[in-house]
Design goal:
Elements lengths: L1 E6 L6 H11 L4 E7 L1 H7 L7 H12 L6 E6 L12 E6 L4 H13 L6 E4 L13 H5 L13 E6 L3 H15 L2 E6 L12 H15 L4 E12 L4 E12 L4 E5 L3 E2 L2 H8 L4 H9 L9 H6 L6 H17 L12
Parallel strand pairs: 1-2, 1-4, 2-3, 4-5, 6-7, 6-8
Antiparallel strand pairs: 8-9, 9-10, 9-11
Helix pairs in contact: 6-11, 8-9
The structure holds inosine 5'-triphosphate and magnesium ion.
Family: Belongs to the eukaryotic CoaD family.
EC number: 2.7.7.3
Organism: Thermogymnomonas acidicola
Length: 328
């Protein structure tokens, strides 16, 4: 029984090793279809080591698994995968899964048994985009998926606190980050209610994206709970990426005191309402009214960070959330 896996394997990165490992652990002998130098020249946007060197690196990696394997030249996308009776499984990534389904259709038409499809999930770089040879070649990441060039993040806000929290979070996550504050965006109403909060966060994110990698919009809004009859302050974060894919996250919510709710209904923001009631200005740019009301046990920064972190969760397991492609 033979498992096949194909590719160019120009830089032997963590995604490639995951594919080869899945093949090695399939229990079968492995055949690696390695694209020829001509294929690399004609089909890839980058140069890379020649066939012999790429083959050597694959052999070096696979020899650690103690399995039988061979590396063969491949100069088409499917090689002889649709005609060989010896093959019983194929290793794919989310990007190449559809190709395997087409191979199986053609195998069945030719009266051959379909290949068992062994799918490797996206192996993500520290910026939550998949590792790829193109990105390594462009100098964005290294073979382990660490950022080499700065990750470029835009955020639409006039509030330095949101920018600081966003910068600190992405630096912890991706290392090398540049944050660009965008102040040209429509604020809609000063104090959004309910679903407007989500719409304004989304609009801010798209306004911040421009030609960057991520655009961020964070908006705190008031959500009325019919069951309790109370109004909750919740931070909503929208994150849009360079492929136009948008995800959302929300912070935990806390009950807004009645005197502030009344003023918000008259069109004030929570900060303006708090100023009228206490004489303290711009509370939203520091620990927030939540900081005061909670005697500093909860700060606005923590709610902002929580909404951003929650908005990134769907990007940490893209396939589970139904994301198939990263291509534009
Ligand atoms: O798409 P480009 O930038 O050309 O480069 P690549 O890294 O995908 O390079 P290959 O075409 O050699 O990939 C070989 C196989 O590995 C898969 N693969 C590449 N990067 C992956 C990643 O980050 N996670 C999972 N699989 C990946 C890819 O889909 C192919 O099935
Ligand atoms: Mg690829």
């Amino acid at each position: 029984m033979i498992t096949i896996v194909g590719g160019t394997f120009a830089y032997m990165h963590r995604g490639h090793r995951a594919m080869l490992r899945a093949a090695a652990e399939s229990g079968n002998e492995v055949i690696v279809g390695l694209t020829t130098d001509r294929y690399l020249r004609e089909h890839k946007a980058y140069s890379g080591p020649n066939y012999e060197e790429r083959k050597r690196r694959i052999e070096e990696f696979l020899s650690t698994f103690g399995i039988r394997f061979t590396v063969q030249p491949l100069d088409t996308q499917t090689g002889n995968s649709e005609t060989s009776e010896q093959y019983s499984a194929i290793v794919v990534s989310p990007e190449t899964q559809e190709r395997a389904m087409a191979i199986n259709k053609n195998r069945e038409r030719a009266g051959l048994r379909p290949l068992r499809i062994i799918k490797v999930p996206y192996i993500l770089a520290s910026d939550l985009f998949p590792i790829s040879s193109t990105r390594i070649y462009m100098g964005e990441i290294d073979t382990e998926g660490r950022r080499v060039s700065p990750l470029r993040v835009g955020i639409s806000t006039g509030n330095a606190l949101k920018e600081q929290v966003t910068k600190a979070f992405f630096e912890r996550m991706a290392g090398n980050v540049q944050v660009f504050r965008n102040t040209e965006y429509s604020t809609g109403s000063q104090q959004p209610m309910g679903e407007d909060t989500v719409a304004f966060a989304r609009d801010r994110a798209f306004a911040a994206l421009r030609s960057l990698d991520y655009g961020i919009g964070i908006e705190s809004g008031c959500f009325w709970s019919p069951l309790t009859g109370k109004v909750f302050d919740v931070h909503v974060c929208a994150v849009v990426d360079r492929y136009g894919y948008i995800t959302y996250g929300m912070s935990s919510g806390f009950e807004v005191p009645e005197p502030i709710v009344e003023r918000i209904k008259r069109g004030q923001t929570t900060s303006q309402a708090y100023f009228e009631l206490t004489g303290e200005e711009n509370i939203g740019n520091s620990e927030g009214i939540v900081g005061r009301l909670s005697r500093s046990s909860v700060t606005r920064a923590s709610l902002i960070e929580e909404s951003l972190r929650n908005a990134l969760i769907p990007r940490m397991d893209p396939e589970f959330y139904g994301r198939r492609r990263f291509a534009t």
